[in-house]
Known about the structure:
The protein is of the alpha/beta class. It is built from eight helices and nine strands.
Amino acid sequence: MEFTLDEYQKAAQAIADRLPGRADTAVVLGSGLGRIAEQDTLCEIPYGEIPGFGVSTVASHAGKLVFKRLGGRNVLFLSGRFHFYEGYSFAQTAFYVRVLRLLGVRTLVLTNAAGGVNEAFSVGDLMLITDHIKFFDDSPVRGRNLDAFGKRFFDMTTAYSPSLRALAKQKAGELGVGLREGVYAYMPGPQFETPAEIRALRILGADAVGMSTVPEVIAAAQCGLRVLGISCITNLAAGMTGGEIDDDEVTQAADMAYERFSTLLASIIEGLDRV
Ligand code: HPA
């Protein structure tokens, strides 16, 4: 499924008509972080009221766009995202990224829950995403190129903004919040991976594995959004503990990281003016 420029513009207009102000920063709240979008909100728009947006079918994802102040600035929060495993195409999972671009957003912070592949990682660790691996599936920008969003062939070398990564590390250091760094491997899901897949991913250089974020980062790189990605390690990946991966434990671990994760996020957002 491809979208026309007109469809992106209609969605952006529908949002702009309701927002009480402009925001140049957006944050996508992954599992466990949704609570940020429940307090002190200035405007909430359910995804179902935005043309082109899908409906989030994941229980832990609320499915609304929220405008609020955080870290001294206006921020748009996406509480809930769309995943390939829900049946959405890559273009649909990344639809909102291009809409944010049209709304004037320049910095996109993507958060997610991920399995730890690196054997030094523990449940509850936060990991700054330095790069990703995605060999398979679609691209969100496949098809007729919409020049308004950039060139067909575009660079991914600095898709995870070096200056935003430096800011995140600095803030984590100041707060005393541990922040790992590593490569996020995208897997389509919804099944968790097999132990053999995890061993293969580790050999290939992955530190964490998850089922989101990467389509959005690709779309963001094309249209020139600066991206910061942070994963919460909610479990050790398949085959690493001798036990099985339990979805409830993943959700619980994400919930437990909330205070640390949201404090770090607010502090990073506060520091954005300097990078
Ligand atoms: N694999 C893929 N996605 C995930 C995992 C995992 O182990 N944990 C949380 N999201």
